[in-house]
Amino acid sequence: MDTATTDPTVTGEGAGRAGRRRRFGARCAALLFTGVSVVVGCRTAGTDGVTPVPQLLAFLPWLLVPTAAGLLFTLRARWWTGAVWGVLLLALLAWFIEPYGRTDTPSGPPVAELRVLTSNVEFGQATEALIDAVRREEPDVVFVQECEYGCDAALKRELADAYPHREAVEGGGSEGSVVLSRFPLRAEDGVPGTMGMPAAVADVDGHAVRLQLAHPMPPLPGRVGLWRRELGRLRDAAAASDIPTVLAGDFNASQDHAAFRRLLDTGLRDAARLDGADRTPTWPSRTAPALGAQIDHVLVSEDFAADRARFLALPDTDHRALVVDLTLHAP
Q1: CA–CA distance from 270 to each of 79, 159, 226, 244 (Å)?
Q2: For the ranges 10-19, 115-124, 161-170, 321-330, which has the lowest average pLDDT?
Q3: H-type helices in 204-315, by residue range?
Q4: Least confident piece of the model among 11-25, 30-44, 71-85, 262-276
Q5: Which residues have C-beta within 8 Å of that of residue 226, sequence separation ≥ 6?
Q6: C-beta atoms surrounding 96 within 10 Å
Q7: What's this model's pTM, rounded to 2 decimal places?
Q8: How do strand 269-270 and strand 304-312 relate by DSSP bridges?
Q9: How far does Cα 11 stand from its chain's mean position?
Q10: In sequence order, what DSSP letters do the residues of 290-301 get, joined into one string?
Q11: In whole angstroms, what is the distance from residue 182 CA to residue 160 CA?
């Protein structure tokens, strides 16, 4: 009668390989969870931290991917403490992905309407595409960032008849910015910054509305402090305004940045969120809407309702333009 035998050496080698695979999986999971935990920890603490945290915070929803991958590693490694760690991270990410800020609607009667368009034309490269979009969408107010000298001249030449009123900070490269308006404008002191952030008060059907263009420095390595200070100046300007306000542009920040949430804490509302489009990416346009961050915004005071937010893919710029219809309500 034959009998089956097992080689204890082979069995030991198999168990050793399985153990090494589990340890490798646990180490991979721990590495992924540690990186995600740093970012989520800063989000929980209400701070933007230091490089690379501000850059990663812009893509916070996509941290679900490494977290889920780490969770799979923990299951294969049978590392149950790690699995609890991963589930906790998933729960926190799901919580923070929820929209931030107020969405209550104005209680007074509507008194005026205006359509707003904001676009970063990337060193003026998308100027012609922007002009076509303006003619097609027919906004009442246009906020243009990175409008260098050639862009500024083209807007004057092509749109002066339709938009006779303007406020601008002239500059080359990314420094130039322009606000175009169908409504009469009164010049106001803008927000000082590395790049132009002009301001004006518009007469919208007899109602004064403050217009402020936003374009703070991005949170580049070594410049996070400057980015935070310039967003702080925008927050101070918003807090000081005592009339209906529209603050629009490329904020280089999303709702997952503490510096941007402090802007919303002044009482401003994100118009895209009011229309249910709070997580629609605007940058980088080459991967949006599949992957990206919403860093271009139209923020409005509590006097406004928002409708029909839409995002335009313009060629030759790394940002999508944002168009939204606003309704001004009486107090």
Answers
A1: 42, 28, 23, 14
A2: 10-19
A3: 224-240, 258-264, 271-274
A4: 11-25
A5: 194, 217
A6: 18
A7: 0.92
A8: unpaired
A9: 55
A10: TS-B--EEEEE-
A11: 10
Burial of 145 from C-beta contacts in 10 A (0-12 / 13-18 / 19+): buried
Which residue reads 């919303």 in tokens? 264
In whole angstroms, give the CA distance from residue 121 to residue 63: 29
- CA atoms lying within 13 Å on the CB side of residue 66: 18
Q: At what angle do helices 64-77 and 80-97 cross, to 10 degrees?
A: 160
| DSSP assigned state of 3 | -
Task: Check if the beta carbon of residue 86 is closer than 8 Å to that of residue 67.
Answer: yes
Q: What is the CA radius of gyration of the chain?
A: 25
- If DSSP codes are grouped into helix, strand and coil, which group holds residue 5? coil
Residue 92 has pLDDT above 50, yes or no: yes
- Tell me the residue ranges of DSSP E strands in the chain: 110-120, 141-145, 165-169, 177-181, 185-188, 199-204, 207-214, 245-250, 269-270, 296-300, 304-312, 321-329
Q: Which amino acid is at 165?
A: H
pLDDT at position 287 = 95
Residue for token digits 């916070």?
60
**DSSP alpha helices (H): ranges in 78-146?**
80-97, 127-137
- pLDDT tens across 223-256, in order? 999 999 999 999 999 999 999 999 999 999 999 9
Task: Please report the pLDDT score of residue 1 as a whole number.
Answer: 42
Structural tokens at position 6: 């097992």
